[in-house]
């Protein structure tokens, strides 16, 4: 194409957040290069079944009973006192515009009776009114991904942006001022340095920290780990949401919260609805409550999974059924889930199916303001890898797709304002080089003078953490070359046992020391880079969870089961300034040092 030989904005990630940012930035005249770790639709977005929450009262066919105040209240309630109120209000106020933009991109949300009829808006856990838009029944994320990918391919074909597929972020590149000016990426067997005036991380979450997850294989925390190495501030990493109802079968297929919203119930091995006495909302309680009760009940019955019972569900009155049929209704309303359940030989219209909690969403991430800016100049983050503060300690169901759409557009707007033509540096692309094992490839790149360190910046985030909290430094010693070789399966099992649905101080301490003893792999390959990223993020999650000596939202400690009002605030962390400083190239020696994190207080 005829674009300049360098990108001005590098967007890393191809889910709703990355695609929205890339399309909006390109629409504002910026030179955009989009990186996708795999194919464009290998994302968490495509797996989203439940829908997208939005305040649609002012849109044709919208929910007249909803309001900004009501959606804000529900979000803050689920967030358990740790949301950023201003960010939540931005999320809800901008939601109508986000839905309008998705429709303009071609997303076909479900309607009651034809193109001009009202939208079908569902009710999910902890929502006061039905405000969840769906597409294709339980295929909302797939429809959104389809439409945004189509728009992206059109933009690529017309020369408005570039797309690099099967290209993995390895690390960020900073200049001598500490500003991010590009990224080091792995493109097949080639190591490439891509220069840019700004980098937007939209790399999604880190579900692969755990053995049971609804996330795709690409969700290995790449953006968060790279941001930590670059000195960026992260926030709220102790808050990991476990979806209560993944099918207890290989693949952990997610059974959407919308199924419970439409009448499914949870039963123990005796057939009793055990959630009725645990929470006033029973099966529609916040996800953390449902997940904990499922784990407790399963443990109490010897590890046998609990059961999701949909056998009494029928089509609503007036839906055209003379005699409502459960099987027909489930197949039409939840076609993706129906096919997945039946693929395992289960007929969920006739018998309850076994379910288990699975790692689903990371509320924490790279700390940003409400326009995607991080604490590192030139670095932005959006979507699940970012921590805007909208989710607090426990994400409200179906707010995640909305966050990607709202803050993707806002980040693009910020980029257009922040990158002024007279300030733009015009760096070059470096020639792709084949990787070689060990230090040989390292020396080859460093000979070009491309190796830089990442000084810890001190500006760029709203209410930026400015000073150390007393006693807030966590040091995990691990001499270079020492330690137990990293094994992903053993690592995931340790994370599940120590920082899973149920936690306690002794388990977290044991996890911290176990992770400190691990030696990450030194190879330069996609699996090795993923493993290093998982270990970095896992250590940060364990540190944050150990520090929060209370239970709040998705973070539940059996030794501290009651929330403490004094600890309701958010927690901010960064790599300790005394930690070894590595260049942007991940060499074997770069990753033998252990991670050291310091907690910092917000201004």
Automatic annotation (TrEMBL):
Catalyzes the oxidation of L-aspartate to iminoaspartate, the first step in the de novo biosynthesis of NAD(+). Keywords: FAD, Flavoprotein, Oxidoreductase, Pyridine nucleotide biosynthesis. Gene3D superfamilies: FAD/NAD(P)-binding domain, Fumarate reductase/succinate dehydrogenase flavoprotein-like, C-terminal domain, Succinate dehydrogenase/fumarate reductase flavoprotein, catalytic domain. PANTHER family: L-ASPARTATE OXIDASE, L-ASPARTATE OXIDASE, CHLOROPLASTIC. Residues 445-454 have a biased composition (Basic and acidic residues). Residues 423-472 are annotated as: Disordered. It catalyses: L-aspartate + O2 = iminosuccinate + H2O2. SUPFAM superfamilies: FAD/NAD(P)-binding domain, Succinate dehydrogenase/fumarate reductase flavoprotein C-terminal domain, Succinate dehydrogenase/fumarate reductase flavoprotein, catalytic domain. This is L-aspartate oxidase. It is an enzyme of class 1 (oxidoreductase). Residues 435-444 have a biased composition (Low complexity). It comes from Kocuria oceani. Residues 9-401 form the FAD-dependent oxidoreductase 2 FAD-binding domain.
